[in-house]
Every structure is written in C-alpha cells, then in structure tokens.
Amino acid sequence: MESGLYVVATPIGNLGDITARALEVLRAADLIAAEDTRHTSRLLQHFSIASPLFAYHEHSDARAQQRIMACIAGGGVVALVSDAGTPLISDPGYRLVREVQEAGHRVVPLPGPCAAIAALSASGLPTDRFLFEGFLPAKAGARTRRLQDLASESATLVFYEAPHRVADTLNDMVATLGEQREGLLARELTKTFETLKRASLGELASFVAADSNQQRGEIVLVVSGQRERDDTLSADTARLLQRLAQELPAKRAAAVVAELTGLRKKQLYDFLLEQR
Ligand code: SAM
At a CB cut-off of 8 Å and minimum separation 6, what does 236 contact? Predict the structure, then answer.
C-alpha cells in the first residue's frame, strides 16, 4: 500500500456497514490516528485488527501532527478515523489533511457511512441541492439568528443535533421557518431504535415533545428548503415561457428560459404543468 494519509469512514452504529477497503487499510496501517482511542479500539477488536492506535483530536498539539507527518514521510500508512462516520464531517482532521497535502504526500479518501448523507438519502425531500449546516449554535439567541439567516434558503437543510437540544431546536425551527415546512427526524440511524419520521415541523415538534424517547440517542434533522412560489415569475418571464411552450416541448421551453433568466428549470417546468 502506498504511503499517505487515508481518511477512513467507519460505521455510525451498525458494524456491518464497515467497507472492505476500510478493513484493508486499517489492517495495513502503521498508525491509526483516532479521535478517541478507547472508542476505536472496540471497533478494531471486533474486527481483530491490532494496528497501533494513537490519539488525534481537536485539541491535539503540534507534536501529534508531527508524529503523523514523520510516519508518512518515512513511507508509512496512516489511517485517520473519527468516532463514527466520515472524518472531517463535523469531526477533526481538516488541518491535518491540509498539512499532508502541502507536504506533497497523498491523501486518500475511503468513502463510507455518514449520518448526514444517510438521513438525506431516506428523507423523501429534494436532494438535488442541499446545505449541510452541521450543529446549530447551542445558545438560543444565536441559534434563532442562524435559522433566520437560513429561512429563505431554497436548498434542503441538514443539521446534526444533540438529543437534549432537539425539542428546543424544533420549536425554534417552527418559529423561524414556519410550522408547515416539511422536515425529517432521523434518529439512531442503522441502530436498533432507528426512527425516521417525515412530517411538518409543527408535527415533529409535538412528536418529540410528547415522547422523551425521541430526545435520546443521535439525531439528524433534515428540513425542506423554502419552496419557490410560481408568483416569483415575473409577468414577462411567464409570458415568454408560455409562448415558447407553444413551439417547444415543455421541458425544452423551461430549459431555454432557465438559461436566459437564471431561474431553476424545475420551477419553470412546474409552472408550465400547472398552467395546463
Ligand atoms: N463524522 C460523522 C458523520 O460522518 O456522520 C458525524 C460526527 S458528529 C460529531 C456526530 C453527530 O452526527 C451526532 O451528534 C448526530 O447528530 C450525527 N450522527 C452520528 N451517528 C448518527 C446516527 N447513527 N444516527 C443519527 N445521527 C447520527
């Protein structure tokens, strides 16, 4: 195996989600840089892997980074893992990846589990554009301001949330984004008590408030973006679109107008369908 830093995704609950490549790299690694060595040692034990473990986390000092760099410079293989899922996604590693790249060594991603992508893939909400927001601020005021900034965003929104804050966060979402906005609560993904519930934000807030079990475990919230309304089309755009649709198939007409106006093809196409 070529030397370098291998960024290895690990399961977010179900150990069956480990990939064949992840096992191969973890077995071959000269060093496994782990966010929490006790946590990762349980994973390694399960797969009978005995490669040396080493703590690398947000508060690691320069020496920890130097040790990793020296290993790679000496021709070694270093695997970077976080407690669960894909390293660097709301997890440490960004500075290390940069340093390895800048020193001219290889950085090799090993794709695999990621809670945000798992939730999104089963959300039933549009996935053509999404905004990963990670964790919202813990303090109520800052959280509300952040949500207000996101209120007009049309892409689907993806948040990580701590279980003891999920009820408050859903209430804040109702207040800032509206109770009718659709959302998904994805809890304990890939684990025994996996829950996936798609409903309006108002319903989700009531569901979580009424059942303390929904305020446990690990949680991803996915929220629909603000839907563009047909009346955002100016009268000129609507006229142009309708005239073109008399000459061209609706999809083609929508594509041409999207190109000319910068509006989304789907919005224009949906407008034409509703006019029929
Ligand atoms: N790097 C990880 C990834 O790729 O998903 C995320 C790390 S972040 C520190 C941890 C957060 O991810 C949790 O607080 C929760 O919001 C989410 N998460 C992780 N595992 C999860 C699971 N099994 N079900 C739902 N959410 C999960």
Answer: none
Measured from the Cα of 161, ligand 1's closest atom is 16
CA-to-CA distance for 48 and 217, rounded, in angstroms?
27
Say which amino acid occupies 90: S
Residue 151 domain boundaries? 116-223
Summarised one tens digit per residue, pLDDT across range 232-243 is: 678 888 899 999
Place of tokens 């390293």: 87
Q: Does residue 40's CB lie within 6 angstroms of at least one atom of ligand 1? A: no
Nearest one of 237, 263, 228 to 152, comparing CA atoms: 228
| Structure confidence at residue 275 as a pLDDT band (50, 70, 90) | confident
Q: For residue 162, which atom of ligand 1 is closest to its CA?
A: 14
Residue 270, domain member (yes or no): yes
Q: Does the beta carbon of 161 sit less than 6 angstroms from any atom of ligand 1?
A: yes
User: What is the C-alpha separation between 31 and 236, in angstroms, rounded?
Assistant: 63
Residue 152 lies in a domain: yes
